[in-house]
Amino acid sequence: MGSDAPSIRNARPEDAPLLAAAERAIARVPGMLASRPDEIDDDAVCRTIVALEERGDGMYLVAEREGTIVGHAFLEALSLAVTSHVVRLTIAVHEGHQGQGVGRALMNELLRWARSNPRVEKVELQVRSSNHRAIALYRSLGFVEEGRKTRRLKIGPDMYIDDIYMALWVGP
Known about the structure:
By secondary structure, the protein is an alpha+beta fold. It contains four helices and seven strands. The protein has a seven-stranded mixed β-sheet with strand order 1-2-3-4-5-7-6, with helices on both faces. The longest helix has 15 residues, at 102-116. It is globular. The relative contact order is 0.16.
């Protein structure tokens, strides 16, 4: 485990290639991400960073340790008026940095932002049923399981993983 907590900062457009590369590396492990490596695009990551900054209805963060980005996460508001009180959380702890407090540091900062934003009342996320470490982290932060889509990801012949839907109420 790393001895120092990672520093957290806002993502910048120039971070996009590194963030996309980290997601591609994670996606090589079947079932960790819904996307396959060839489905993760540098430009799409950059567009998300820019859009969240411009709209101000979400937040995109990176975690750094000793000048190296070791994780990233973002909150993005749902677009419909009836769901505008909900933000969707996406998080990736980069290979070799799991179990070192990176995910918790990112989550704590995102949840601090969500709790301080009067527009946000609920934080939602999806997690693979095989990702026990992430599920334990989310539960420790107060997230509860709201549903499950069974056999949602097909990772091989007759090999499936469920998607678990979890949420945390942060509003009044």
